[in-house]
Amino acid sequence: MSRAVVTPLRRPERSTSARQPARPRKTVALGNAAGPDSLAARLFLLAYDPERGRLTARSKLGKLLRAAILVDLQLSGHLDDDNGRARLTTRASAPVDPVVGGVLAELRAVGPRRWRRWIDRRGGVTVRQVRDELARAHLIRVEPYRVLGLFPSARITLRHPLVRRHILQSARDTLRPSRLVSRVDLRDAAIVVLASTADLRTVVTKDQRTRHKDRLAQLAVRVGPVVPALKKSLQQAQASAGG
User: Fold this and answer.
1) Where do the record's region annotations for Disordered lie (predicted)?
2) Around Cβ 162, how many Cβ atoms within 10 Å?
């Protein structure tokens, strides 16, 4: 009696692409939070030290944020440099960020002045305005309290630390020697240069400032006249504080 030959069932062959699916591109997950667009808001987040749980460089923060807003206005085409003065252009569109728009309104009311004049104005007000906008965007939490039970202050915490980490990484990437200075994104360059000028070590450490001194100088040239104006403003403030 002959035996029946049982042929094992074969699974249908998969194509090469099916056996080796293409890997998706690596993306940075920021959760449901979108990072802020304005340079001042980004620098405010970077001034926050996650390890200490507080803002750093408070005495310089007002000038730093004002300088960041001026760079924002220059990069967006609202301001030009006119022999060391900030001059309004004919661009009609208003900035999306209300704090940036407020500074633009100041310039419209007064007219062309040296960049440093605008850096020195209303620093404390600007810090509070940027902080409040970040709170409204749910990127930080602001909790009022009193120091020693007497002096009003505010405790700030990050709601989305990954947003800050992504901004920091993008800024620090501009220091990589493999990237041509001429090809670096100007907004990222502005963040790292302004932070270095203000000695904001949560962004650029002392060692990084030394190692990348020449590159930072090259990036500063690209960012424009606000950088030397910020440096002079900070130097004058330090000299005044020293007596």
Assistant:
1) 1-26
2) 14
What region, left, alpha or beta, does residue 61 occupy, with left being phi > 0 and alpha being psi -120 to 50 degrees? alpha
CA-to-CA dists, residue 42 to 148, 163, 179, angstroms: 31, 9, 22
Residues with Cβ within 8 Å of residue 128, at least 6 apart in sequence:
none
Contacts of 235 (CB under 8 A, 6+ apart): none
Domain 39-233 has CATH 1.10.3630.10: yes
All structural domains of the chain with their residue ranges: 39-233
Q: How far apart are CA 196 and CA 218, in angstroms?
A: 13
Tell which residue, 26, 46, 68, has the closest CA to residue 186.
68
Q: Which CA distances in Å does 170 have to 39, 131, 132, 188, 222?
A: 13, 22, 24, 6, 17
68 pLDDT exceeds 90? yes
Burial class (CB in 10 A: 0-12, 13-18, 19+), 116: buried
pLDDT tens-place string over residues 100-130:
999 999 999 998 999 999 999 999 999 999 9
